[in-house]
Amino acid sequence: MIQLLLAVVSLSTAPTDRWPAFRGTGDSISQAKQLPLRWGDEVGIAWTAKLTGYGQSSPVVWQDRVFVTSIDGPNKERPNITCYGLAAGRLLWREELKASQPEKVSNYISRAAPTPAVDGERIYVFFETGDLAALTHQGQVIWTRALTVDYGKFLGNHGLGSSLALTDQVVIVLVDHDGPSYLLAVDKETGETKWKSDRPQNVSWSSPIVSNSEIIVSSSGSCESVAADSGEQIWRVSEIAGNTVPSPTVTTDKVFIGSSESGENLAIRRHHEDPSDESRVAWRSQEATATFSSPLFYQGHVYMISRAGIAYCLDAKTGEAAWTRRIGGSCWASPLGACGRVYFFTKSGKTTVVASGPEFELLAENQLTTEDRVYGVAAVEKKFLIRTGEQLMCVESENEGEEVQDAGTSDEHVSLPADLPDLAKAITSFGAAVIDNELYVYGGHHGKAHHYYEQGQSGDLLRLDLNAPTGWETIATGPRLQGLAVVAHGGHLYRLGGFSARNQEDEEQDLWSVADFARFDPATKKWQELPPMPVPRSSFDATVVGNQLLVVGGWALQGGKDSLWHDTAYAVDLSQATLKWTQLRKAPFQRRALSLGTQDGNVYAIGGMQTDGKVTNRSAVYDPSTDTWSEGPELVGEEMEGFGTACCTAGGRLYISTSSGALLVLNQDGTAWQDAGKLSAGRFFHQMLPVRDRRLIVLGGASMETGKYASVEWLSRTH
Length: 719
Description:
2 domains, five-stranded antiparallel sheet, 2% helix, disordered N terminus
């Protein structure tokens, strides 16, 4: 296998010169290759800055600029936004707003607690005075909102602490207090309300987390998912005690909830067929608690720290404790994962650094003398920004912070090995998916090129444990198929369609597409037949949006008869107890050998071969909310670029690998493809999967020059 490292856009993590919001991108993980390991009052301090007023928010970073908020005046009448140069801490600008809801300063009420958020155009700030604003990176105010004027004064004994979150289009604001509460989406450019979802009176300091097309909110008694484009509830788990301050930690399959009460720190399945609360709960920890800081999910384990300074390392799959240690103090800042380490920044200025993993290994203990609490941190390449109430410090790594070649992490942040074993047979036209750090491959063609027969097709379901990839194993069998689709959802595999050869190698080809639909349960290692698709279909693709499984494109092989090309599209709601196929608006094309992927809730049907035998590089976009099709961006390159492509969604961005070996990523507004690197060799009829947040994996397929591939490649992303 050839290992390939690419400068590509990352899933949930920002590039290493950015820490754009609370907990970075909401997961407290940095992809930096070098970060300080040891520092102190006399060692490793690059610069310090005295802040105006006082603040409890975390710093945010965009390339060479650090942004931090604070509040000044005896009645918190002056909210401040300050910008420093990252290199030397030079003050670049400071902007002062006028408070809409002044309130006497008190140690018991929040002071500039919400962390701002920054993107490539603006810095967005929010204060417990009710003031929400957007500024340019140069400090010019673009727009302001007074939420207390629009929706009523904030009530409560301790103020507000919820930080901002961003989608591509809106700023997300959570206001949970003793008065009318709400979740708000505000247009980034204008400050106008896009939607407002009213909530029951609910006091909380937790912050919302954006995950693809969903917003996850864990707040004082419940955790829920709402649609990012409308605020409508998707699912909800109630009766959670003590989840007032910690924010949720979100992966592709799970949500980890921190709570101050034992037995209430838990993992929730994001995609689950049974809508009942308790069945959605994957596990509960009876030991761990997380009072102020949020859980960290890093390299297969969940890290929490209690009010008393007890750190817990839990197995992410089971919730069982791997280790428990007192690390020297309580943490208001959330634990941070980077370089194979976990950093615990205690509020007293002591930072304990341990090796990530199930065995406790103390790497360093660092003490800074501070006059106040450590509230928040940011991590960029070679630097930590540590914030107390009145001071911002930059801790910098020089030679001592050795470069760490991160093996990459998955949707569950588990360390990946440098190499993976090849497939036992070179295959094309197969299905593949990843569930819980395990890579599954089903079916495919391993026989002679352009000649299809029963023995040249596979009916094996193969599995590779990505945590300990010693070899592929066959865990189940089924019908021999190729040209099928396989997707993962809710901890299950779903197998759809494909075609089977009814002839032997020396006989004339007799190929038939099937309408099969089946679900595989990794726990029981059994297939369950489900209601078949309305029509037989092969050489198509499938994808999942929320709980909806969609199939588009392909054709039906009918033995010696002419093949039937499809323009129909169907969907099935996987959250329902009884599965039923629903016909969608017909596609404005008939193509096979296409690929299907999603971005921002839309489905992109890309490339493929047309009925005239010509390959197209065009794409079409399906909007599930309106049941409409529109023209999408065209792939750039030669005619064959769009033939047998593979695509997947990672971190809300759609990636595609083409037959020439190009790796492309769809831009944020979905209008054009951007260069994202190159594979070691071009492939078609292969698979590309998002294996953990920082990597893609490419396997199988074929090329005109080489033939079929058994190799597996890593693709590292830094976007």
